[in-house]
Predict the structure.
Amino acid sequence: MKLLHIDSSVLGENSASRGMTAAIVARLRAEHPGIAITRRDLAAQTLPHFTPVLTEGHPCITRNAEILDEFLAADIVVIGAPMYNFTIPSQLKAWLDRILTAGKTFHYTEHGPEGLAGDKRVIIASARGGIYSEGPGQAIDFQETYLRHVFGFMGIHDLEFIRAEGLNLGADQRTAALASAHKRIAAGVQIAA
Ligand SMILES: Cc1cc2nc3c(=O)[nH]c(=O)nc-3n(C[C@H](O)[C@H](O)[C@H](O)COP(=O)(O)O)c2cc1C
C-alpha cells in the first residue's frame, strides 16, 4: 500500500494542518506498518506556476510527469490544506495543476467529463482561521468546496475532510478546534485493508 503525504502550509512549525497531516500519517503507519510513504512539502519545494512547455525533454515536463505518477501510484493521499484568502494556498493549486491532466485523471466523453482516478482514498486536513462549516461563512468557503469538486471531478469520492476551524478566533477556540480534530484522528482513519 502506498501513501502520498502532501503539505502546503507556509506557517512551518506553527501550522495547524501540518500537525494534523503528521498525526494522520502516523496513525495510518501504525495501522499498516508496511505502508510506503512518499512526502511532498509544497512550501519547502515550491512548484512554479503551471506553464505549457513545448520542448520535448525539458526538465519541467519530467518533473510534472513525476508529480503526476506519484499521485497515480498512491492508494491513499493525505493533504494538508489551509485556507488562505478564502481558498487553498497557491502552492497547492500549482500541484493540482499538474494532477488534473486530461487522459490521466479525467477525460471527456460524449456524456461529459469522467474521472479516471477513482481508486484512491483522499484525506484532507483542513485548517482555517474563521468558521465556514455553518453560518454566513458557508457562502465564501472556496477552499473545501473547491477541493471537493476537483477530487470528485477526477472520480475520487472516497474523500474525507478532517477540519480545524475558527483557529484565529481566540486561544480557547483554537485549542478546542485542534483538540477536536486530533481526537477525530486518534479515533482512527478508515482505510480499506
Ligand atoms: C496568508 C494567509 C491568508 C489567510 N486567509 C484566511 C482566510 O481567508 N480565511 C480564514 O478564515 N483564515 C485565513 N487565514 C488563517 C489560516 O486559515 C489559519 O492560520 C490556519 O491555521 C492556516 O493553516 P496552517 O496553520 O496549516 O497554515 C489566513 C492565513 C494566512 C497565513
The chain has one domain: 2-186. Residues 16-31 form the longest helix (16 residues). The mean pLDDT is 95. The pocket of flavin mononucleotide is lined by residues 9, 11, 15-18, 82-86, 127-130, 167-168 (CB under 6 Å).
